[in-house]
Amino acid sequence: MTTMELIRRNSIGRQLPDTDRYKMRFEVRSSSSNAIHRISYDSAEGAGWWTCSCRGNISTGQCKHLTACGLKGRKYGRTAIEEVGR
Questions:
Q1: Strands 36-42 and 49-52
Q2: pTM above 0.70, yes or no
Q3: Which label site among 12, 39, 57, 66 has the fewest CB atoms less than 10 Å from its CB?
Q4: Are 37 and 26 in contact (CB under 8 A)?
């Protein structure tokens, strides 16, 4: 399954508009609660990784939501946004 297929499968169908810093934004529902988390690509200078709004990602740099979508967070270092879909 490609990364884009994983994103579509795990997304709740709501894509969000890009901002200057965050690209390819979308929302996912938590598997353990009714919480909704935002996943996006952080394109700030010095960043270049995927991020999630959940506490797990904020504290460790990777979370189950990113993993379910086949994305790598801050814990794994820089990832080019062009790698999505491969």
A1: antiparallel
A2: yes
A3: 12
A4: no
